[in-house]
Amino acid sequence: MKRLRWGILGCAAIADRAVIPAIQASETGELLGIASRDETKARNKAEQFGIPKHYGSYEAMLTDPDIDAVYIPLPNHLHKEWSIAAAKAGKHILCEKPLAMDAKEAQEMVDFCKETGVHLAEAFMYRHHPRIARVKEIIASGEIGKLRGIRGVFTYNGAANKGDIRQVKEWGGGGLYDVGVYPLSAARLIMGVEPEAVTVQALFSAEHDDVDMMASGLVEFPGHVALTFDCGMWATFRNELEIVGTEGTIVLKPSFLPSKETDDIAIHVGDSVRREGPYGIDAYAAQSDQFARVVWGEEPPAYTAQDAVANMRLLDACLASARTRQRVVL
């Protein structure tokens, strides 16, 4: 079987915890190399995970003709720079969310990758899990009635980790960038249309470089349906998505970090609860397999790169609303 030969730019924790094992376990991928600005660090990671190649710079990986695609888990402010560098080198790109620092940067990335003929995808792995498609089927079936609202929460307490990259404002730190993007993208996916306006309140913490450590908001969609959400890095861990209809609800818990043991769906109608799953799917592996099949021309992307621009536009509006304490119309 042919394999897409992957390289990883950087030694981020998300790569260790999820993406490296997923690529190695996928049907389509081969993890060929890992790069760091610290060659010793790259060598240690390569030895730890049995990766054949390591590089002491990102540039060295990008000049390697054996690498077909790169995964970029770098801090947010470096996404545009290294995605464009990878595209110039002819590498296909899976970039961590959020795709960029703002919608303007994201559009520039999308346009450049289109010009150079490389596939660019934003790494929202949960969207590649089959239960997301199943949720849309349940809604379309009318089982929970007419859609009335969506509620999404994603919080964790990382306030004590002073100096973490998520707490550096100039690097794209903050809870909306880190975890708020999940309920925002999920609501857009479920609704199938773009929102009309947002209102967000946030805690911008002086002791955490003025990034939003907690935010709560309302995202208005056409048809009088709204997403209510809260997200942040200074609250107890919560990870849930609820879709509310006139006759019932659909609950995903955990929603954006499903494991093979917890990737089920709960459908509440009246006094009854029906569960579907667990599916036992590694969403990260599903993401990498879909990416490879797009690169090979075997199927269209499940989510276009332009979708990432739309999500950044919504994120920009949320941040503007939180800073100004005003409703922002998109």
From TrEMBL:
Keyword Amino-acid biosynthesis recorded: no
Domain of life: Bacteria
GO MF term list: nucleotide binding; oxidoreductase activity
GFO/IDH/MocA-like oxidoreductase domain segment(s): 133-251
Pfam families found in the cross-reference section: GFO_IDH_MocA, GFO_IDH_MocA_C3
Record's keyword terms, sorted: Oxidoreductase
Segments forming domain Gfo/Idh/MocA-like oxidoreductase N-terminal: 4-121
Oxidoreductase as UniProt keyword: yes
Stated family: Belongs to the Gfo/Idh/MocA family.
Name of this chain's protein: Gfo/Idh/MocA family oxidoreductase
